Amino acid sequence: xxxxxxxxxxxxxxxxxxxxxxxxxxxxxxxxxxxxxxxxxxxxxxxxxxxxxxxxxxxxxxxxxxxxxxxxxxxxxxxxxxxxxxxxxxxxxxxxxxxxxxxxxxxxxxxxxxxxxxxxxxxxxxxxxxxxxxxxxxxxxxxxxxxxxxxxxxxxxxxxxxxxxxxxxxxxxxxxxxxxxxxxxxxxxxxxxxxxxxxxxxxxxxxxxxxxxxxxxxxxxxxxxxxxxxxxxxxxxxxxxxxx
Length: 244
Fold this sequence. Notes:
The chain is of the alpha/beta class. The protein folds into two domains: 7-128, Rossmann fold; 139-232, Thrombin, subunit H (Beta Barrel). It has helices spanning 20-28, 39-47, 65-73, 92-100, 113-128, 222-232, and strands spanning 7-12, 31-36, 53-57, 83-87, 105-108, 139-144, 147-156, 160-163, 174-179, 188-198, 210-218. The strands form two sheets. The protein has a six-stranded antiparallel β-barrel with strand order 6-7-8-11-10-9. The two termini are 15 Å apart.
């Protein structure tokens, strides 16, 4: 995945609609599209992970979009993945069907790609702001590609963390992490995947730079200790600034 492709989108639609040219256009705008023609193919992508958002075409006869949405939202392993339903139909009944099925957003099509992507980014930002995030003074030991580093922990959530560094790591890089939390006797040990590099932006000079990592697995009871720490500190007002 290229450094600019920061959103992994699963499209459930007629795959002939999502052409190579269309995918290339999305990729240039920071979206990596995976196309599924049916629910089984969609599940295969979801089971492999790395899907940030699901878009289902309600006009595609190959899938009952409302039923698929309700089923995915009922599964604990998928229920937090935002789902967007789209349609060329503009009636209130279609919109209500989409939202009552549990869709996080309904979008009328056709819509220029740039505006559609802005809607997706807005939804992701809204979703992640509901996730508690903590700024902690700690160093994280990280191993990747036979290298070892120790970088400051920028901030932390239940889904991942941001490491403060000017170094770049390619998206998709597998890493091993070890870090301490205040009041937690044993270190947290986890495996993860790099999902984003945040470089300095002169238009937002106060924005932290670093490497965003999504947790993939934990060693021992590390996940339980992390969850307990987050539960105890869940009165924070901090908002999740970076999508993991």
